[in-house]
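Input record, target 12 of the design panel.
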């Protein structure tokens, strides 16, 4: 699978971590907080994107 992932600066990454921590302090689970922040980044990110390939283990066995 291929995905266009936002290319974030170190500062943007730190802001995302802080936002995740804030959401967790408000009662969200870590998974929910990460998913919400990821969606926010995808919706608002205007910078470059990197292309990444994620391989399933099943594909490697065939």
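The sequence produced for target 12 reads:
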């Amino acid at each position: 699978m291929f995905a266009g992932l936002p290319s974030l600066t170190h500062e943007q990454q730190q802001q995302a971590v802080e936002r995740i921590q804030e959401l967790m302090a408000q009662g969200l689970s870590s998974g929910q907080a990460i998913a919400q922040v990821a969606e926010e980044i995808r919706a608002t990110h205007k910078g470059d994107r990197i292309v990444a390939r994620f391989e399933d283990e099943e594909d490697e066995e065939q």
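The chain has a mean pLDDT of 78.
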